[in-house]
């Protein structure tokens, strides 16, 4: 059973028998304009970061490396250990509030310009257009029966897609295994099973998502499309169609001018805004969850308006209130600063500043003190009471350090043996330490003491760790 929904110019037929709309291949038309230029700038920027960072050296190692074998994360000049998981939580909080702020201000800008699904779909579509031609040629090719020409074009296209997908998968694994070692393993046919699995899995996933599913990911799989509505309000910038100016639609003569035909609106019903849409929607039907705010329809409509001699902006970035109340540009900007956006921005800035301060002032030294569990205490030949401890010293700096170890908390407590140790850069070392006191200077049972580990070259690099000393 089909349900008919009336629109200003034509009905939309919605299939109510199934959960999903019947899939139709979207052949997006090429478009030129300022927003298309910005989309490609973001493609270049994001892919330069993704493909390039893993090949840049920093202090003799890979600049960004999440080394799972060593259990260390190297990010530019910083080294993070498993104990630094709090920074991962903070990063997720920053990402969430940044997404909330961008969505509240500008709608789905992330989807349209920086989402990996959008970026790689754009790349795959560019390859498709270069090989198979523009929209009419691709539609004609798909409608034809299989032939040698069609097979050749399809084969070349899929080979190019697979090359991009495999290189992307290789790069992805290169952020978890040093990429130069990974590259040597590939060319020498010595790639491990897990590296092989993840390269092929990531490549296959990308090949399927960007090559075949495309807009279906945005329509049915992406959760962001579902909960974006709770972050929108009437003052959120969205892609809008000016109904008052555009309706009723109708064909017009070229260069006829905006008021040449008083019975018609500015929309010439050319449907180019639909043809350029990567998700295949008609923006003239209003805001839809499938809209990823890529603004291709704005570039297309502005080009048509230039040709027919009408003002640009029939389709534009605007807000519901701006359309209803006819806001000027400065009024729209003024309404962007509202309680919701101010709250998001304030929380985001507070978290970023606090995190930056913590990272710049953090001490590149971590120490864990473990007691010898086999013996609570022991008596030395000279009658002193000894406790044995294992100190796990982690040097998170990019330079080696010599550390001096001292102990305090009980009168006369001292360390037996070496008190100086050297730990290489970005590594850890286990040190056996024996603390000793005279019998009778402390109470029976446990007594609070603390170890101090201090760099001999920098007094600011010092850690105090509390533990207990047992007396008989």
Commentary on this structure:
The structure is a single chain. This protein has 472 residues and is of the alpha+beta class. It has three domains: 20-221, no CATH class; 231-341, no CATH class; 365-471, Immunoglobulins (Immunoglobulin-like). It has 16 helices and 18 strands. The strands form six sheets. Strands 10, 11, 12, 14 and 16 form a five-stranded antiparallel sheet that branches. Strands 15-13-17-18 form a four-stranded antiparallel sheet, with no helix packed on it. A hairpin with a 2-residue loop joins β6 (72-75) and β7.
User: How much helix, percentage-wise, in residues?
Assistant: 40-55%
- The structural domain count equals 3
Largest sheet, in brief, is: 5 strands, antiparallel
Measure the end-to-end span. 86 Å
Beta strands, count: 18
Oligomer: single chain
Q: What fraction strand?
A: 15-25%
Uncertain runs with pLDDT below 50, 5 residues or more? 1-17
What is the approximate shape? elongated
Round the mean pLDDT to the nearest integer and report it. 87
Helix/strand/pairing category: alpha+beta
Number of helices: 16
Please state the CA-atom Rg, rounded to the nearest Å: 32 Å
Write the layout of secondary structure elements.
Layout: E1 2-5, E2 12-15, H1 34-52, E3 57-58, E4 61-62, E5 64-67, E6 72-75, E7 78-80, H2 85-106, H3 109-113, H4 116-132, H5 135-143, H6 148-173, H7 179-187, H8 193-213, H9 215-221, H10 224-227, E8 238-241, H11 243-246, H12 272-275, H13 296-308, E9 315-318, H14 320-325, H15 329-336, H16 339-361, E10 365-371, E11 378-379, E12 385-395, E13 401-408, E14 414-416, E15 420-423, E16 427-437, E17 445-455, E18 462-471
Antiparallel strand pairs: 1-2, 3-4, 5-6, 6-7, 8-9, 10-12, 11-12, 12-16, 13-15, 13-17, 14-16, 17-18
């Amino acid at each position: 059973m089909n349900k008919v929904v009336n629109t200003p110019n034509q009905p939309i037929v919605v299939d109510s028998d199934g959960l999903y709309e019947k899939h139709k291949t979207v052949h997006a038309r090429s478009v030129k304009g300022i927003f298309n230029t910005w989309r490609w700038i973001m493609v270049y920027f994001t892919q330069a970061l993704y493909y390039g960072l893993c090949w840049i050296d920093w202090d003799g190692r890979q600049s960004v490396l999440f080394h799972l074998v060593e259990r260390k994360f190297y990010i530019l000049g910083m080294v993070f250990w498993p104990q630094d998981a709090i920074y991962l939580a903070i990063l997720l909080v920053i990402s969430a509030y940044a997404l909330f702020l961008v969505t509240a201000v500008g709608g789905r800008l992330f989807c349209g310009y920086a989402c990996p699904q959008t970026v790689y779909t754009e790349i795959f579509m560019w390859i498709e257009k270069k090989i198979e031609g523009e929209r009419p040629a691709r539609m004609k090719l798909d409608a034809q029966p299989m032939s040698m020409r069609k097979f050749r074009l399809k084969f070349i296209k899929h080979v190019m897609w697979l090359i991009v997908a495999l290189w992307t998968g290789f790069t992805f694994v290169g952020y978890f295994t040093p990429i130069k070692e990974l590259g040597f393993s590939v060319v020498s046919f010595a790639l491990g099973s897990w590296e092989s699995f993840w390269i092929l899995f990531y490549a296959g996933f990308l090949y399927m998502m960007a090559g075949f599913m495309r807009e279906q990911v945005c329509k049915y799989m992406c959760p962001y499309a579902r909960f974006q509505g709770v972050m929108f309000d009437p003052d959120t910038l969205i892609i809008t169609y000016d109904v008052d100016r555009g309706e009723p639609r109708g064909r017009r003569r070229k260069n006829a001018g905006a008021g040449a035909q008083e019975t018609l609106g500015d929309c010439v019903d050319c449907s180019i805004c639909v043809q350029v849409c990567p998700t295949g929607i008609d923006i003239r039907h209003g805001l839809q969850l499938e809209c990823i705010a890529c603004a291709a329809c704005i570039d297309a409509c502005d080009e048509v308006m230039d040709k027919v001699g009408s003002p640009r902006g029939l389709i534009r970035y605007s807000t519901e209130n701006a359309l209803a109340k006819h806001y000027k540009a400065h009024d729209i900007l003024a309404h962007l600063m509202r309680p919701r956006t101010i709250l998001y921005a304030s929380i985001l800035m507070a978290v970023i500043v606090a995190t930056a301060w913590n990272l710049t002032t953090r001490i590149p030294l971590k120490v864990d003190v473990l007691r010898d569990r086999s013996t609570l205490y022991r008596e030395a030949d000279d009658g002193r009471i000894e406790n044995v401890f294992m100190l796990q010293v982690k040097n998170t700096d990019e330079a080696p350090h010599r550390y001096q170890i001292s102990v305090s908390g009980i009168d006369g407590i001292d360390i037996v043996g070496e008190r100086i140790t050297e730990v290489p850069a970005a590594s850890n070392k286990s040190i056996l330490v024996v603390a000793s006191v005279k019998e009778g200077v402390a109470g029976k049972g446990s007594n609070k003491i603390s170890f101090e580990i201090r760099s001999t070259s920098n007094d600011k690099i010092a850690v105090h760790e509390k533990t207990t000393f047992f007396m008989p």
